[in-house]
Design goal:
CATH topology of one domain: Aspartate Aminotransferase, domain 2
Number of strands: 12
Shape: globular
Order of helices and strands: HHHHEHEHEHEHEEEHHEEHEEEH
Strand order of the largest sheet: 1-7-6-5-4-2-3
Radius of gyration: 25 Å
Low-confidence stretches: none
CATH class of one domain: Alpha Beta
Number of helices: 12
Largest sheet: 7 strands, mixed
Length: 481
């Protein structure tokens, strides 16, 4: 059967003869992106509408011009988190090197399953993650693997903790006489319940520990919950602390929690998916004191390191445990002294996310990342000052990172109308102020959340946000008479 219907430029010719065609395609893509950048700079980061561009698959392929016309619609209808007014979630503008790294990794199409299939990139991942483990203070034998997001990182950490505690890697949980449980803050990420569900423990195996007024786990309640679980005949095996909660960005008291984990013989995992970026700031990393006690750490460079998604990792203090309590050898791979990463990862085939991380580190450097983190704190301080200067706004607690959770409590409205007012304020900011703030449920009400990641979110941009808030407040007050 011939290939007459396959476009001649469907693939890059391995002999390099298609370079001109590739250059033309890249130029067309770049121009399409620049059109979006220019058009959306003065608009809201949210798309004006979302339309379907996904008709039935064509019988015969289209040319580049027709394909790119379809792509243009997708670009226009997509969220634009690079916008300085997009401050609603833990997403931001990607580093240029991470975008380039993704392109190069896709072009190489190496498989991080094994060293045989990704010789340079497998070694890069091992070496770079060893350095990350050391930066977190986990020691000389630390390291880990990249994962497609923090949810999988938490899953793998808890799988290893479970296997280690109960020796169930091969035989499973059926023979256990006690129910395994773990402990996490009541405001910890929901990926922990997913992990417990997938590990056969049931989502209710995650015992919620009360948080204080600043959304930080209370060590006294943790110890009480551990003792209660033991008294009830359950089998505690792990405690998860959070460094950077999703709604408020707060950090659990890691040192105290780590000490309790050690006292009761529990695996200590720290979900630092967000707050882990503080390791780059000599002035702010004190907030992670105690993380060096962790047996495992989740960290997402796709957040505070500005790496294009996805880019996450799970680190272990003792990587030998991955071999003894998690590894499943792949017999279809050549023997090697190098441990194939797919054998010690919850994933097998993986994209080379390590390349964009390494390239960004090479380009920005440790000092550059320090400045980005410290700049976020300066921007956050300015944002918090604006909140405190307005009597109708209240903070959910004291910010510890670059997240501000706050809400309006206008005195001219009854308390049961505040939630609706905050939802309307969010809508007003999106439509009139070219600003997107998220509006999560928290403490039984609706709050506004600002994530001040984007280095292009200047004080001038923030002034504009609060001018729009003041206009909405004044109009609301006037409407009440």
């Amino acid at each position: 059967m011939g290939l007459g219907n396959v476009p001649r430029d469907a693939f890059f010719n391995p002999d390099g003869s298609g370079a001109d065609s590739l250059r033309d395609v890249v130029d067309k893509v770049l121009e399409s992106l620049m059109v979006v950048v220019r058009e959306r700079a003065g608009q809201s980061p949210l798309p004006r509408s979302v339309e379907s561009h996904y008709e039935a698959f064509p019988q015969e392929g289209h040319g580049y011009d027709d394909v790119f016309a379809r792509l243009s619609g997708v670009l226009q209808d997509s969220l634009y988190p690079a916008h300085p007014g997009y401050i609603g979630h833990m997403d931001s503008i990607p580093t240029l090197m991470s975008v380039i790294g993704d392109f190069v990794a896709a072009f190489l199409n190496n498989n991080l399953l094994s060293q045989e299939m990704s010789p340079a990139l497998s070694m890069m991942e091992t070496d770079v993650l060893r350095q990350f483990g050391q930066k977190f203070g986990l020691g000389e034998n630390s390291g880990g693997v990249m994962t497609s997001g923090g949810t999988l990182a938490n899953l793998q950490a808890l799988a290893l903790a479970r296997n280690r505690a109960f020796s169930v890697r091969d035989e499973g949980l059926a023979r256990l006489g006690k129910r395994p449980v773990l402990f996490a803050s009541e405001v910890a990420h929901t990926s922990l319940q997913k992990a417990a569900m997938l590990l056969g423990l049931g989502s209710s195996a995650v015992v919620p520990v009360r948080a204080d007024a600043n959304s930080r786990m209370r060590p006294d309640d943790l110890e009480e919950k551990i003792r209660n679980a033991k008294a009830c005949g359950e089998a505690p095996f792990a405690v998860v602390a959070t460094a950077g909660t999703t709604v408020t960005g707060n950090i659990d008291p890691l040192r105290e929690i780590g000490a309790l984990a050690k006292q009761y013989g529990l695996w200590f995992h720290v979900d630092a998916a967000y707050g882990g970026g503080l390791i780059f700031s000599p002035t702010q990393r004190f907030r992670l004191q105690g993380i060096e006690q962790a047996d495992s750490v989740t960290f997402n460079p796709q957040k505070w390191m500005y790496i294009a998604k996805t880019c996450a990792m799970v680190l272990f203090k003792d990587t030998d445990l991955l071999l003894s309590d998690f590894r499943v050898a792949a017999p279809y791979m050549s023997d090697s002294d190098f441990v194939n990463l797919g054998e010690i990862s919850v994933q097998g085939t993986r994209h080379a996310d390590i390349l964009k991380l390494w390239l960004s580190l090479c380009h920005i450097g440790l000092v550059g990342y320090q400045q980005l983190v410290d700049h976020s704190y300066a921007t956050t301080a300015f944002f918090v000052d604006q909140i405190r200067a307005r009597s109708y706004l209240v903070l959910a607690g004291e910010p510890e990172t670059n997240l501000c959770c706050f809400r309006g409590e206008p005195s001219f409205l009854p308390q049961d109308a505040w939630d609706e007012w905050n939802v309307e304020l969010q809508r007003h900011l999106s439509q009139r102020g070219q600003t997107f703030l998220s509006c999560p449920g928290y403490r039984g009400g609706r709050w506004l959340r600002a994530v001040l990641l984007n280095p292009f979110t200047t004080t001038e941009v923030i002034d504009g946000v609060f001018r729009a808030m003041d206009e909405f407040y004044q109009a609301s007050a006037a409407a009440r008479g």
